[in-house]
Amino acid sequence: MNTLLSNKKKTLSRGDQPSILFVHATSFHARIWSQVIAHLTDFHCVAIDLRGHGRSSAAPPPYFWNFFADDLIEVGEALGLSGAIGVGHSIGGHAVTLAAARQPNLFSRLLLIDPVIFPPEMYVGVVELNHFAARRRNQWNSPDEMYERFKDRPPFNAWNPAVLRDYVDYGLLPNPNGEGFILACTPEFEAASYNYGTATNIYPEIATIQIPVTILRAHRSSDNFTLNMADSPTAPDLASHFAHSTDVYLPDHSHFIPMEAPELVADYVRKVADNE
Which domains are seen in the chain, by residue range? Predict the structure, then answer.
């Protein structure tokens, strides 16, 4: 089951604007978008907790990424969304791209923020990565403890402090087996989901997408980006594979663009909405 966050009904100040559907990265949750949405009060904004994240339940494996896209399509149908703007970060960018291909009426435009869409040659099937995310600390006394632990450590020290506050406040759940809190997206789920990142080549679906797509790409320090979560995982030439696309390179930002610069992301949402 997926859970949703929706702001108040859109006003008429900008005319009949499309709704905006925000989709987060692996291990995060819908409220990671709160500081972006705070700059978009004249739009109807919806953010989703993907399965296994936030307040959404987790299905058993396998964790093929097309499942996330199927969930978005179901959410869109349940909310009656049509011609929305899809905004996806990281795995969320992958999910909205695949959803746009599978349900062409769902979105009218996409904003992909450093999406996890690798170069085509990397799609080699499921890979057992033994990802370090499996070793994340999973028990905390309080959200305040987690905030204090993270605020001065990379990559979190580059984040907008309000975003970090949202991350810890809504990224923890009461520990069902004792005192304190545990991560809403368990380390086991996060690590296992990364194994499926190269399982299915998304490029045949990309070739069918006819709506405008804007891609924000972050800095990549080396080809070993899988070892550095702050590096961009996006294929540098990704925009060339879409029929109608704009590539925006943001070398001063890491993969965590929405966390570092929520106002900048909101500005790009407005540009996409205005067809700029």
Answer: 3-120+201-273 (3.40.50.1820)
